[in-house]
Specification:
By secondary structure, the protein is of the alpha/beta class. Helices cover about 35% and strands about 25% of the residues.
Length: about 220
């Protein structure tokens, strides 16, 4: 059975979240106060519902109590965010994720019941900063407080060498989990095949060891 997810607020972040979740196979309920916004995405989600997200009765009328997850995506509207988090938890939604514009707003949303608060602009800034620190880094993803995943090109000194020769686990405390070549991304990594400049690597390592790869 598909996961039932409601995304409340169809700004840029909420719209992208709703469409991506739908593409990934979730049953998505998109909610916004603007019917013209909902009309544009109604064919791409399971349900598109108009509601005043500052009004408790209007929020409750959407049927969010049937959702597995509610995403509160109005990061710039504190009143609407507080109301939607509170109503969602009062109605028994198991998991509520809320977008916050800053730490003060995030602290308030946690106090009224949000299970997780996210700071998209801050997190995006951190990702971009990581990629700027090395010519090899293409993208950066947090896994948890300790682990991260990098998408990167082989460092210049790695090109032409095999993973056996490089011994990345010992020298960099890094694990290659997939390699992309001209045929696509492959989870099977041949440790005896020399790396090429055009390869793209997915690497998992502890954040404390990032400096080794940046040098």
């Amino acid at each position: 059975m598909s996961k039932q997810i409601a995304v409340l607020g169809m700004g840029r972040f909420g719209k992208r979240m709703a469409l991506t979740l739908s593409d990934l196979g979730a049953d998505v309920m998109a909610v916004d106060a603007d019917p013209s916004v909902l009309e544009k995405i109604s064919s791409q989600v399971s349900f598109a519902i108009e509601a005043d997200l500052k009004n408790a009765e209007s929020i409750a009328g959407t049927g969010i109590e049937n959702m597995d997850v509610v995403v509160v995506a109005m990061g710039s509207d504190l009143t609407a965010s507080i109301m939607t988090v509170m109503v969602s938890k009062e109605l028994g939604v198991p998991y509520v994720m809320a977008k916050a514009a800053d730490e003060r707003m995030g602290a308030i949303l946690e106090k009224v019941g949000a299970d997780r608060v996210i700071y998209p602009e801050e997190e995006t800034g951190a990702r971009i900063a990581r990629t700027l620190m090395s010519e090899s880094f293409m993208d950066y993803f947090d896994i948890d407080k300790n682990l991260c995943m990098l998408e990167m090109h082989p460092k210049k000194e790695w090109i032409g060498k095999t993973l056996v020769e490089l011994n990345l686990r010992k020298n960099y405390h890094a694990n290659i989990v997939a390699i992309k070549d001209e045929t696509g991304m492959h989870s099977f990594v041949d440790p005896n095949k020399p790396l090429e400049e055009k390869n793209e690597l997915l690497v998992i390592l502890e954040k404390a060891d990032l400096g080794k790869l940046q040098k």
